[in-house]
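Everyone, describe these structure tokens:
***
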Amino acid sequence: MRFSDGQPPPYDLTYSEAFLVPSRSAVISRLDVDLSTRDGTGTTIPIVVANMTAVAGRRMAETVARRGGLVVLPQDVPVDVVADVVDRVKASHPVFETALRLRGDDTVQDALHLMPKRSHGAVVVVDGECPIGVVTGDDCAGVDRFTQLHEVMSPEPLTVAAELLEGPGGLQAGFDLLHDARRRLAPVVRDGRLAGVLTRTGALRSTIYRPAVDASGRLRVAAAIGINGDVTAKAREVLAAGVDCLVVDTAHGHQERMVEALEQVNRADPEVPVVAGNVVSAQGVRDLVAAGADIVKVGVGPGAMCTTRMMTGVGRPQFSAVLECAAAARELGAGVWADGGVRHPRDVALALAAGASQVMIGSWFAGTFESPGDLLLDEQGRAYKESFGMASARAVAARVGAETPFEQARKHLFEEGISTSRMYLDPERPGVEDLLDQITFGVRSACTYVGAATLVELHERAVVGVQSRSGYEEGRPLPGGW
């Protein structure tokens, strides 16, 4: 990457102050761009979902991995729960979606409670393991909540054989089957048993995305641990659960305790990439890589739920932090994840152009069907989910529950994050896959403008300019007119 005037400005840049200059390009189609990363994590798109309790859970992990990304489970999740989530993600099919299932004598209320858990918004009614009907939100409209599902379901549903989808041309055949039958989705069956759900959009996506899978063809998932306590024992337990990447996480990663924690992690002989952070300087990268990190997380204070910069004055504009840290990591054969500060697809493209191997996203994905937590409605009937920062009093309370009431009370006096925020679902993009479409197609288009067929070429060929706030505003669309 180089700056358009030949040298960086004498001050640090945020994403909004930078822009990519178009260059001569031989890349004709966005779909010709390879978005796979080379940092050893096995992802096929450069997106990592942050280890936030309100964002990263089983449904998120499964869905994002199916589209090529990686989800990091939070450090405050008990190890037995981590193991259960990993097992469930690994058991999920890399192509068709997990079905929501109920029996015919279950009620409409049960179905309405389950539907927001998946973007496909349908419940498959089963007799044992055999699908006998499908229930959607329309089927439940105006119906008494205690009505049994066999009374409202669409019986004898169209089904798709799993073997068809897994064969050559199977995804197009599945799409054509749904299209010709005028169905949005259908249960997938194997040997007469419900194996999942196929949607028309899902069939299309599976021809564009490649799932992030391990050597056994199972979906990938990561988990985080903290830097306190017996780090070696915790690392061994999480690694034994079968995670594909281990993240050693704390807000201030450039400290002695992190170095000691990484040394303890290495005693567990991890055979997966080890990520550590967060830092914002080249020296921070060098120290963590020397201590055993394969990848370093970059970012202090840019997150939407983070108040660190306003509380402490500590942090650094994210574009410049990623640029400096990525350069230091390349010299050491390591990678960096740009963690926080992205609000639009353009920001993801700029982070990758600056040299990040992945971009970590948290709050942006909190307002989706797949994030943990219940779907709530505000006073105007708009759907939202609650989110909170991982340095907030709410998150700290979850992490210090085993301490004495006195110690808990002392720690509750201080926080550097927002404890409650409403993250509204975008009616046009309510699912995380909808957001992944928007982000990855923006990054793909950026690559075609730059003339890059891979992420490595994006960094090598990128020419970055610096703009004023007026320049940034000029690039914003005006859907409401002048």
Q: What stands out?
A: The CA atoms of residues 213 and 219 lie 4 Å apart. The two ends are 36 Å apart (CA to CA). The mean pLDDT is 93.
